[in-house]
Amino acid sequence: MFGKCGVREGQTRVTVQVVETETSERRSSYVVPGTDAKSTTTCNKSASETVYGKDNGRTVKEAVDTDSTSTCTTTARPATPPTTQVRSIRQENVEAIMADGTHVTLWCQAGFRQCISLKAGYYSAEVDGNTVWMYIRDLSGKEHKVKYKAVSIDPNKS
């Protein structure tokens, strides 16, 4: 859509004028299911004795309570209701003018890649189809490429 500016290796740089940047937020929600109530009872016998017997010709071994008192503990876990979680993802919408005068809206979304809110001014960039790689410098002077997608193009706007 922007015309050929070279291919990835040895890509030709152009100057892009950033007019304005607007930060927005994409929100999505999902439900974490609740849990059922559950009770667990464990008993400790105070005294036991091992008894051997026969069952269909086989010798079997069984522990038998010889004291009528046992200590039992019941642990109850109450049910929990489902909860709704909301996730926000920052997005940047950059109004820019390409080197040929075309007005575009460039978009990026934070998450798996770096997404920068660009200040108004002139930036060096590479164009590959609808992808624009804007070059920015950090405080140490190191140059970084930030990827934006062209989402709106107005070649007639002046």
Give a structural overview.
With 158 residues, the chain is mostly beta strands. The protein has two domains: 87 residues; 46 residues, no CATH class. It contains no helices and ten strands. Strands 1-6-7-10-9-8 form a six-stranded antiparallel beta barrel. A two-stranded antiparallel sheet has the order 2-5.
The Rg value, from CA coordinates, equals: 34 Å
What is the overall shape?
Answer: rod-shaped
Task: Note the total helix count.
Answer: 0
What is the N-to-C order of secondary-structure elements (H for helix, E for strand)? EEEEEEEEEE
- How many domains in all? 2
Which features would summarize this protein structure in a list?
single chain, 158 residues, mainly beta, 2 domains, two-stranded antiparallel ribbon
Helix and strand layout, with pairings?
Elements lengths: L12 E20 L5 E8 L2 E8 L2 E8 L4 E8 L5 E15 L5 E7 L11 E8 L2 E7 L5 E12 L4
Antiparallel strand pairs: 1-6, 1-8, 2-5, 3-4, 6-7, 7-10, 8-9, 9-10
What's the short version?
The chain has 158 residues and is mostly beta strands. The protein has strands spanning 13-32, 38-45, 48-55, 58-65, 70-77, 83-97, 103-109, 121-128, 131-137, 143-154. The chain has two domains: 13-31 and 87-154; 35-80, no CATH class.
